[in-house]
Amino acid sequence: MASRISLERVQVHPDGVPTLEVLASLALPSPPALHPGHGSGAKPYVVQRKQNQYKEIQDAIQGLVSSEQLEQIFKIVDWDDKQQAIDILYETTEATLAQQKPILSQLPKFSLFVEQAMEEFLEGIQRQEEEKSLAASVATPTEAKEPSATSTEPETEEEPSATSTETETDSETVKEAEEIVIKTKAEELFVAATEQADEGSVPIFMDVLQVSPELGEDGMVPKLLNPLKPHHKMGCGRMVEEWELAALKTTKRIMIRQCTRDMAQLLNKASMEHSCAKIFVTGRQGVGKSASLAAIVASARTSGYIVMYMPDGDRMRKLGKYIEPSSTRRGFYDLPFLAKEVCGALLENHESDLHAMVVSPETCNKYLTEEYMKKVKELNREDASADTIITVVDLLKTGSELIDISSACYSASMDTLMNQTTKPFVIVSDEFNGYYDRGHYYHMSYDPLVHKPIPYSSMTLFEPLINTLGVSVADDSNKKRPAKSPPPKNESLSSIQRGGIVVGTTESRAVSRKVTGEMTEAASALSDVSVVSVPPFSVLEANHYLSNLDVTGIGRLRFDQGETVMNEQEMAYLRMVSSSRPQLLLDSTLS
User: Fold this and answer.
1) Minimal CA–CA distance to 584: which of 573, 254, 205, 257?
2) Which terminus of the chain, N or C, has fewer Cβ atoms within 10 Å?
């Protein structure tokens, strides 16, 4: 039985899983402040602390300076007198603020902060006055054209040459200025409205089972998140473990956080602008990176996006059974078993979305031999000799059934999906940093002594992902034994035309920290890659997460009748021992 406080506290989105458009504008609580112990380092923490102190001074100044004082200053004509009045206002405000904020007044740069905040405040007031005068100047010519009712003087014809030209030029300039102001204002208002809505908001959960009642073969994960697996060696992270342990089996919830909203905004913008969003998700172990990626997959598929989801990158980089040289791409290598698996998952999730997508003859000739084309037609057509159109569904069906041509079908399908703009195409790959570590696949055609691992960027399965993201790090795994095989030709697939790629790192797998650090630095240095950091829970988020565990019935929260969630000291203890990380917070309720 769940406690009343938990039932009232936990809020589930009314749609179950919101679309990316809805998710992008959802009001959500702010993440916790940066802390050196969370892996962010001392410098970002100090910068944020100073920003918070400065913002507190700004808010205090807005409440101290009255409109009457400002009106008196604006009425002064002489500039020297006006400057003297501003100096007096500054000194008075600083003295009053020092009395109200005795701790802040001890800061070494307190006077400088007050001066800068006062200057920005007055500049904002000045801009408002200029906007009012601009609006008045736009309205004045229109009023001047109206004939006066009391005028009795005869109208005289004006010379159109100089006056009309100047009027047209001025109106065009004013119109352009208005458009720029309106566009800038719209962007500022959206950000301000989002920040304002975030204040006082509470965490919201999405319920995947509400949208996708049908479960997968494992009987645990909804089909909307296929091919996510619950097994600890096959699945990603430990997110599914919460669903396995829950006594309430009629709901599968994921908390929506601001980092998830940031990803939704980037993908939604890329879909509207027909561009490619490149998102690199990072964070410490157990903070919820895998859950954020799963939430994006559920929301994107609910929005009608085509999503290729690869949640178990660590398994795929090791357990491909065997590798062989590509028959159609020189210098590349195929992983047929894994390509067959990916084709089957993509077909199962999006067969209805892919029926109308035709594969161009150029793409077929690039990746499929005549023998491969014959096999595709024989499997999907009654008359294999007829020159019929090949669709993406035909390729995925063939790739999911015939292992000998699964890699070729996968490459041709990916090329088509990445270059089409009919529907947004998104790649979501977890444990992505494993593809930059030392390889686990070997072949004598790459190294006759079979000492050197094949780079993942030379494998047809992973090459589209690595090439689309565009992040590269120095590979020193083969320095002692340089490659004897020829490098692959520059035949890499083009980037996604409409959609994006979302990749997440893992801290729980056997991946070198050096590789993960270099990869994160390389991604941060690229202007077209957005780095999204998943922080630990804030106090509010941690409390709501524990209440959700109480509602779903996990661990000792299942039987304590709300004793834990109603005890603030116990809640504070759980947050402390877990560092407010979701994975450790779940573990703390099981002990």
Assistant:
1) 573
2) C
